[in-house]
Amino acid sequence: MLLASSWRRIVTVTAALLQTAKAVTNFTGDVLNGIPVISYLDLNDVPPAAMTRYYLYGSELNAGVIPLHIPIFVARGPADTFESGKKLSISAAVHGDELNGVRVVQRVFEELETKAASLNGTVIGIPTINLPGIYLNQRNFFTSSSSGFLTNVNRIFPGEDPLEGASAPDSLAYNIWNHVWGNTSNVDVALDLHTMSTGSDAPLWCYADVRLPYVERLAKLLEPDILKIDEGEPGSIETTFVDAEIPAITVEIGAAKQWRTDYQDRVVTFIERLLDDLRIAPSDSGPYEPDLSDTWTAMVYHNLPALHGGFAETLVKVLDDVVEGQEVAIIRNAWGDVLEVVKSPKAGKMLRVATDPATEPGRSVAAVTYNTTDPDCAAGCII
Ligand SMILES: [Zn+2]
């Protein structure tokens, strides 16, 4: 019987040998639903002029028998476009309750399958990053150790090496970052698709760190309802790419757990514009001029917390314009007594409004967006 440390050494040595050899797609030998399982994606091995499905070996769960298998789409143009064509990644559901992006990825790849022979480049799609979150129909990744805890996977990229003892969610992030995205070598531009968190309504909007070239163009091509200038969150997919100088935005598609086909349509259309802009699926019509007449660009995202626990009744809707001091929510206790009225501290536009009345002290019952001349917020801020 081998000790765990001996196993670890063998696995480490094998991994080191693999890394010194020429990287090739590593097929584990498993096949699920007719789809091969891989633990490493080398784009050179993906069939040309085709759309291919894989499962990525993402991590393991506590019984040790069935790994997490993460669906991966790859659409590639003909072989002579491999070097010259751009590479786009579209990921969704790193938060397990944020589902509109799942359908967007599916629809984009339904389209790319019919166009693969004429593509000029590569598109990678991950429709469901956080499968444990999806299984539990909630935001975070559940880890069973220590009686259970929850991890926000969008704060731990680029993850930690499983061969160094990383947790399951850290391993998942590491394997996606290194074994699908090739530590950025497989990605020139990235979109990460989200929705607002469960319990609130929101429009179609995005976070954009416009300090990196092309990010502003990317955000404008979306023609969002709100374009939030933002310096990003460490450990998020967007910011990990941006820190590596790969243009990326976080696209927020309405509310959690609500299928909004109107917003999905707009994001699919945006991705078609982007595929044209990157010349992966070029149109003949020249560079697209975004129509920003209905887009509100804002630097500040200001959360409006309740001071008391109770039941929130909101008085505004998303995208409503509000004035300074406007009442946005009433908090009542179990008797119906009014405990407080939450007001907007500034004039602006509502980005988020609670739909779930259950409110604890400190819960942000709404968020308003506006602009400022404060130099500390020049790259965007969240209050
Ligand atoms: Zn999210």
From TrEMBL:
Residues 85-276 form the Succinylglutamate desuccinylase/Aspartoacylase catalytic domain. Pfam families: AstE_AspA_cat (PF24827). Its cofactor is Zn(2+). Residues 1-23 form the signal peptide. It comes from the Eukaryota. InterPro entries: AstE_AspA_cat, N-alpha-Ac-DABA-like, N-alpha-Ac-DABA_deacetylase. Keywords: Hydrolase, Metal-binding, Signal, Zinc. The keyword Signal applies. One of its GO terms (molecular function) is metal ion binding. CDD domains: M14_ASTE_ASPA-like (cd06251). This is Succinylglutamate desuccinylase/Aspartoacylase catalytic domain-containing protein. The lineage of its organism: Eukaryota, Fungi, Dikarya, Ascomycota, Pezizomycotina.
